[in-house]
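Still learning. Show one?

>
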Amino acid sequence: MKILLTGANGYIGKKLLPALLEDGHKVVCVVRNRSKLPFTGIYSHHNVSIVELDFLKDDEVSYDVKEQINDIDAAYYLIHSLTLNTKTFDKSEKETAYNFLKIVEQTSAKHIIYLGAIANEEQLSMHLASRKKVEEILKSGSIPFTALKAGIIVGCGSASFEIIRTLIEKFPLIVGPEWLNTPSQPVSVVNVIQYLKLVLLRSDCFNESYDLGGPRVLSYKEMLKRYARVRRLKRYIYTMPFVPPQLASLFISLITGKSYCLALNLIKSMKIPIVARQNNLDEKLGVKRLSYNEAVTRCCGL
């Protein structure tokens, strides 16, 4: 099959690409800036082609790009705008989704797969609300659609997980806000890639939405503690009534090297419970979910 992969140089895209190639698919990788890709490695694979396209700006494509994507069988939507302006990125998310849908509906694609975020609460952060809106936009199109919605993804390079890892690795004493006690359901990146790959063109997954979560619900504080135990590090973790999100985001940005906008959007979302609704996706696809400790152990190479 021929697959369109957006966000091909992002965290999930870089892990999904080799999995798709292993299954024998041809992959058209969509990136905003082709010059940022390495000239060797996975992107030089004989079944990989690269197109430069910015869905935030482009709702039409050139003849050359159209020739490369016209005969695709399916498309993955792995785009987000978290690093853009914290006050307007939700507008960018909507425009990007509309433009993507307009372009893909002009191809032969028979399936769109979206990796979003669990957003089951009535009160949502701007980040989670925008992820939910993107799902609604993509679902409104004429192409069969599957939404896979994750919470914290546990794996090296995941922005949320890197915050956890950096805090534990660098600081023996952590004093955080009360929302460290917010419940969440972290899921291993290994399982996320399995889900993304296995739902591809499965008609029994068309027009369905699935929450992706690990076997257990954990607070962020418990995730910190469990990471420390896996790494055999003695750490003390306390919470205090009020820490301004802006201050916490600045601190996270400084210690992790992530952008302030990204950190602020993630911090605001951490106040919202992110718990998966039960579904039968594991049984459909034959996926065995890794525990949080197993996922951390794999990430740390232990």
Notes: The chain is about 40% helix and 20% strand. The CA atoms of residues 11 and 157 lie 6 Å apart.
